[in-house]
Design a protein that fits this description.
Blueprint: E1 2-4, E2 7-9, H1 17-24, H2 33-43, E3 53-59, H3 77-80, E4 85-86, E5 95-96, H4 100-104, E6 109-115, H5 122-131, H6 153-163, E7 175-178, E8 208-211, E9 234-235, H7 244-249, H8 253-265, H9 274-283, H10 286-291, H11 299-305, H12 309-323, E10 327-332, H13 347-370, E11 377-382, E12 386-387, E13 399-400, E14 404-409, E15 417-419, E16 421-422, E17 429-431, H14 436-446, E18 454-456, E19 462-464
Parallel strand pairs: 3-10, 3-11, 6-15, 7-8, 7-10
Antiparallel strand pairs: 1-2, 4-5, 6-14, 8-9, 11-14, 12-13, 16-17, 18-19
Helix pairs in contact: 5-14, 12-13
InterPro entries: Alkaline_phosphatase_core_sf (IPR017850), DUF1501 (IPR010869), TAT_signal (IPR006311)
Protein name: Sulfatase
Length: 477
């Protein structure tokens, strides 16, 4: 089916001979043949994919491969680190003693031990992992998102969803980011880290992003139990339409929903721009407001995930994919200034980072499996880089993008295996290197999106959604 200026024309191939002649001549309303084919391909997206949804757990800062999924007990003492490997259900997987919950269910996931790229910088590497494209700025050339950035994988999913018949009428966003935009909890929130936005594709394909505040500048809600009043999961950008008194009371989303709906009925939404109107439409839908109500979960289930911000965000991700969101990113951000970016010491890795990640991720995989959703949900957990094999005196490690691990599960992924191999110091891939392009194409392919899809850029020219790489089909059963 092809729709141009509201007119729908169909035949067996989807494009008529007359249309092809028009396109091949002066062009059809400025649209080239690749553009028409891309539009048709957008309508055919999500057909036959192994995954209905993706949950992308992004551990920003760069978890150490030597303290998580690629321990090297036979390496030199100054390399191997302070943690020991423990038994798990995966042959050849040397998993940290502080990931005991994941060790017990390692038959549900694959560990890629050979992720690699050369952009050894947080912002640029974060852009690379979330888009499949190198950032247009050089290493050290910037910290925040720009309009020239490549659209995130989630934004492409949102774009294709909106282009489908009835896509603009969906009462739930196809792409969501939890619990905050990346960088919002870093220092005073001045960094708007790149990678998760629509970029040159347009703001209409930015994620539906929630907001969870810190209690103070030094507070880290990822490492402590959060009260219900904090876990409102408000949609970013809608606070101004809520009375200040209600914001201060930190009411849950259900109360906000009623306040927003009332104001919409009074016509206050007419003055808002298109992006804000779309957000208002989402929050005024029963499906969105219901999905974002964390209090609807049982106390037992919430305890299972952990009452910390990462655990509750993983639970919210499950609620969103259960409701129909196609791509959910959960950021485990560096709220304390370091976090996974463990330059100083491994103490926080041991005491906070690994235990909270272990609890939240293991609960998510088990919960999805018990609900019959793991077969149709692809779960990915990784950072934007790893850490230097050589540590400092207190086991802090520096940036190291040439070798780091990724956990991948669900949607037909073969569990209980490792993919790729690092060298004896976990410094470089020794077998089956995996690039951000490979990972991006794997995610697109799993969702039923052609990994060689062409997008129309701002100059109305077709460019590949990912330039290079290949989907890792041998990960799937």
């Amino acid at each position: 089916m092809l729709t141009i200026n509201g007119t729908t024309r169909t035949n067996c191939s989807g494009i008529s001979r007359r249309e092809l002649l028009q396109i091949g001549g002066a062009g059809l309303f400025g649209m080239t043949l690749p553009g028409v084919l891309a539009a048709q391909e957008a309508q055919e997206a999500f057909a036959g994919g192994k995954a209905k949804s993706v949950i992308f757990l992004f551990l920003f800062g760069g978890p150490s491969q030597l303290e998580t999924f690629d321990l090297k007990p036979q390496a030199k003492p100054e390399i191997r680190g302070p943690f020991k490997p423990i038994r798990c259900r995966t042959p050849d997987l040397l998993i940290s003693e502080h990931l005991a919950r994941l060790a017990k269910i390692s038959d549900k996931f694959t560990v890629i031990r050979s992720m690699t790229h050369s952009y050894n910088d947080h912002s640029g590497a974060g852009h690379y992992l979330q888009t499949g494209h190198r950032w247009h700025l050089p290493v050290g050339g910037g910290f925040s998102a720009t309009p020239q950035d490549w659209p995130s994988i989630g934004s492409v999913v949102e774009h294709l969803s909106q282009k489908q018949p009835g896509g603009m009428e969906r009462d739930l966003a196809s792409y969501a980011v939890l619990p905050n935009r990346l960088g919002r909890l870093q220092d005073r929130g001045q960094y708007v880290r790149p990678g998760e936005y629509g970029g040159w594709l347009g703001q209409a394909y930015n994620p539906m992003t929630t907001v969870i505040d810190k209690q103070s500048l030094k507070d880290n809600p990822y490492w402590r139990a959060c009260a219900d009043g904090e876990l409102s999961f408000e949609i970013e950008g809608l606070k101004p339409v809520i009375p200040v008194s209600r914001i201060q009371e930190r009411v849950g989303l259900l109360d906000q929903f009623e306040a927003v709906r009332t104001r919409l009925d009074l016509g206050d939404g007419d003055a808002m721009d298109l992006h804000r109107k779309r957000a208002m439409a989402l929050i005024s839908s029963d499906k969105t407001s219901s999905a974002l109500n964390i209090r609807a979960e049982s106390e037992k289930m919430r305890d299972r995930y952990g009452r910390h911000l990462f655990g509750q965000s993983c639970l919210m991700a499950r609620r969103l994919v259960e409701a129909g969101t196609r791509f959910v990113t959960v950021h485990y951000d560096t709220a304390d200034g370091f976090g996974w970016d463990s330059h100083r010491t491994s103490d926080d890795v041991r005491d906070h980072l690994l235990p909270t990640f272990d609890q939240g991720c293991a609960a998510l995989l088990t919960d999805l499996d018990e609900r019959g959703l793991l077969d149709e949900t692809l779960v990915v957990a990784l950072g934007e880089m790893g850490r230097t094999p050589t540590p400092n005196a207190t086991w802090g490690r520096g940036h190291w993008s040439t070798c780091f691990p990724a956990l991948i599960a669900g949607a037909g992924i073969r569990g209980g295996i490792v993919y790729g191999k690092s060298d004896k110091e976990a410094a470089y891939p020794d077998d089956k290197p995996v690039s951000p392009e490979d990972l991006a194409k794997t995610l697109y392919w799993s969702l039923g999106i052609n990994p060689d899809l062409m997008l129309m850029n701002r100059e109305n020219r077709p460019i590949p959604v990912v330039d290079g790489g290949r989907p890792l089909l041998d990960l799937f059963g």
